Amino acid sequence: MGFLASLLVVLLALGRFSAEAVSDHPITHGDSAKDDPCFQALKGDEGALNIGQHWGNVTPTATIHIDLRQVTSTTSSFEFRTLDPEGVIFFGDMGDHSDWFMLGLRRGRAEIQISNVVTSITVRGGWRLDDGLWHRLLVQNEGDGVLLEVDGEELLALGHVSYPIIERLAHQMRIAMGGLFLPASQLGLGMNTAMDGCIRHWAWLNQSTTWQEDATLERSPKRCFSTLQPGSFFPGAELASFRPAALPPRLALHPSKSLHLPSSQHGQTGLLLAVATLDQSFALSLLLQPTAVLARLGNATELQLPLPKGPCLDAPLHLRVSPTHLALRLGAHGDSVTSQPPDFQRLRGAWLGQGGRLFIGGLPEEGETPMPKEWGSFRGCLRGIQVQGHLLDLDSALFRSDTIWAHSCP
């Protein structure tokens, strides 16, 4: 069957979702967390550093400069936690691009890349570390070898790949968290560098642990949740966008999501999903309202379902669009209305056309598709966004706001 020839399906699961609304201000560190049963984890983990502050570039979240003439230890250690299967944990170099080390994850497993006068190598192995638990990582450069231990067990051991730190000609080592000091294209094996993860209890050789960006980090809106679960957290006024035509071919859209919102404030309206056409109008939208979820196809077809009562909601949401019907189901309750074939064809054209856009969580304030004032941005958690069985990764978006937690929710 041809792509979107007869059906468009959107599936969402609303979990720990507040039936009451929230204000128009983004959630910040600790905001409403103390008294909110849906977001107790928002209060954060004091002393931890979120290294996922940047998307779309390799700018490090934090950096340290170490004077190698003062080094008496060849070991660095820290605790690390993530649900993100791929990205850079830390990168170190001697001030140029000729001698560097990178530790990251790929498919959830530790990966080391080394480039220097001795070798250029990429090694990956061990068990998965993207389980959302804190792991103690130790990296040691002893003689010509590099050792990686996780939770006291040897994970990777590489020999004849380096030379002792104290014998290096350069006097300064730079360490970058969650980013690189060189273009991503210069890595031995390309990587999606963005890492939604946290570190704590760090010790870099025997030197100062003062980040160069200390003042900036104190003001960062992205902290480390005290506990986390899989998903993508939108604190408000953020969005992710995709070009539908660039997604896998022949797909019928069926994102699977779950939503988390605070219950202690009032007045929430928020965009969950929208498909925009080349002329900057909306072929399909799915909106959260104070007491209902509203699906809109074109300009004339609308369908809404009331939100169940209660402080936190956990129920699947299923939207089905065909040339003749628009159907919406929330948990055990559903409804459908007759739709017009031209509206479906318009949606199909937007999905297949190069100018079409899929927006999640919000719309640009300016530019190609301005946000209708009555819509507002979504605040909460979306889980497991799928497109024809393919998990949609926010790290691969056409655009994604930096302040979105791409792989974790409180």
TrEMBL record:
<keyword id="KW-1015">Disulfide bond</keyword>
<keyword id="KW-0325">Glycoprotein</keyword>
<dbReference type="InterPro" id="IPR001791">
    <property type="entry name" value="Laminin_G"/>
</dbReference>
<feature type="domain" description="Laminin G">
    <location>
        <begin position="229"/>
        <end position="409"/>
    </location>
</feature>
<keyword id="KW-0732">Signal</keyword>
<feature type="domain" description="Laminin G">
    <location>
        <begin position="55"/>
        <end position="224"/>
    </location>
</feature>
<dbReference type="Pfam" id="PF00054">
    <property type="entry name" value="Laminin_G_1"/>
</dbReference>
<protein>
    <recommendedName>
        <fullName>Sex hormone-binding globulin</fullName>
    </recommendedName>
</protein>
<dbReference type="Pfam" id="PF02210">
    <property type="entry name" value="Laminin_G_2"/>
</dbReference>
<comment type="function">
    <text>Functions as an androgen transport protein, but may also be involved in receptor mediated processes. Each dimer binds one molecule of steroid. Specific for 5-alpha-dihydrotestosterone, testosterone, and 17-beta-estradiol. Regulates the plasma metabolic clearance rate of steroid hormones by controlling their plasma concentration.</text>
</comment>
<keyword id="KW-0446">Lipid-binding</keyword>
<feature type="signal peptide">
    <location>
        <begin position="1"/>
        <end position="19"/>
    </location>
</feature>
<dbReference type="GO" id="GO:0005576">
    <property type="term" value="C:extracellular region"/>
</dbReference>
<dbReference type="GO" id="GO:0005496">
    <property type="term" value="F:steroid binding"/>
</dbReference>
<keyword id="KW-0964">Secreted</keyword>
<dbReference type="InterPro" id="IPR013320">
    <property type="entry name" value="ConA-like_dom_sf"/>
</dbReference>
<dbReference type="InterPro" id="IPR051145">
    <property type="entry name" value="GAS-SHBG-PROS"/>
</dbReference>
<comment type="subunit">
    <text>Homodimer.</text>
</comment>
<keyword id="KW-0754">Steroid-binding</keyword>
<keyword id="KW-0677">Repeat</keyword>
